[in-house]
Specification:
mainly alpha; elongated; 4 helices
């Protein structure tokens, strides 16, 4: 079976690979931010599992309540930071596009 010619590769490639190959900076920035957000979210989820494990093991409920408060504010902080980061990146991109024209 012969390989596809180099000129027709992008026509057969999936859309995400094509966008990535074209090096669209907005797409790459958003994908990178989403991946970082998912990693942090996974870490917070593991903390949640650890808190439930501490509860099942009989850890004092007052201490668990304090840790749950920290866990809640960690979620709020992470979501807030990523939201501010996204808005700032989009604002900078908008400014750059307007000045380039």
């Amino acid at each position: 079976m012969a390989a596809a010619p180099a000129t027709g590769e992008t026509k057969n490639a999936p859309l995400l690979k094509e966008i990535w190959a074209e090096k669209r900076p907005v797409f790459k920035a958003l994908v990178a931010d989403v991946l970082i957000f998912l990693v942090v979210l996974a870490a917070l989820f593991l903390c949640y599992i650890a808190l439930r494990g501490m509860e099942a093991a009989g850890y004092p409920s007052e201490r668990i309540a304090r840790l749950e408060q920290l866990h809640y504010w960690a979620y709020v902080g992470v979501i807030g930071l990523f939201l501010v980061d996204l808005v700032l990146k989009l604002f900078v991109l908008f400014i750059r596009k307007n000045h380039a024209v």
